[in-house]
């Protein structure tokens, strides 16, 4: 959640620092690539014995499992080394983050200033220098 405070100064008095990794910087990955715990350790799924559609989907999924029933609930134990329940959610980053500084705040960029740093060290240095400027102005103020 983003909390926006009511600005106390003009928009030109602000700078916005942003680290971004948009969706294009990521690709889908396998359970093995991301070290998925269900892939590494196996996992369980309990299904009501009367839920024929889910039982059919599990039994025909191609995953390796053992099945135990108590008449009410059927528990499936999936072996380690197989895909988890949601493998499509696994992602790995393939392009580094973007380190951006813009003039202004969330209301806009009236100065048009935009700088993209080449690495995180430059970004942090810029941020630190900006904080020092703010402190110096407050001391003078």
Write the layout of secondary structure elements.
Blueprint: E1 15-20, E2 26-28, H1 31-34, H2 37-41, E3 43-48, H3 52-59, E4 65-69, E5 73-78, E6 91-93, E7 98-103, E8 114-117, H4 120-140
Antiparallel strand pairs: 1-7, 2-6, 3-5, 4-5, 7-8
Short description:
The protein is α+β, with helices and mostly antiparallel strands and 141 residues long. Helix content is 27%, strand content 28%.
What report would you give on this structure?
The chain is of the alpha+beta class and 141 residues long. The protein folds into two domains: 11-21 and 96-140, no CATH class; 29-85, no CATH class. It contains four helices and eight strands. The strands form three sheets. It has a three-stranded antiparallel sheet with strand order 1-7-8. β4 (65-69) and β5 form a beta hairpin. The two termini are 33 Å apart. The mean pLDDT is 92.
């Amino acid at each position: 959640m983003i909390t926006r405070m009511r600005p106390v100064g003009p928009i030109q008095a602000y700078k916005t620092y942003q680290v971004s990794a948009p969706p294009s910087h990521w690709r889908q990955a396998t359970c093995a690539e991301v070290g998925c715990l269900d892939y590494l350790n196996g996992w369980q799924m309990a299904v009501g014995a009367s839920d024929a559609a889910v039982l059919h989907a599990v039994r025909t999924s191609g995953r390796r499992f053992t099945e135990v029933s108590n008449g009410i609930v059927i528990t499936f134990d999936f072996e380690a080394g197989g895909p988890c329940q949601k493998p499509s959610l696994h992602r790995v980053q393939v392009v580094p983050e973007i380190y951006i500084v813009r003039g202004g705040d969330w209301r806009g960029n009236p100065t048009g200033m935009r700088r993209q740093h080449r690495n995180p060290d430059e970004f942090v240095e810029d941020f630190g220098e900006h904080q020092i400027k703010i402190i110096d102005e407050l001391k003078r103020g």
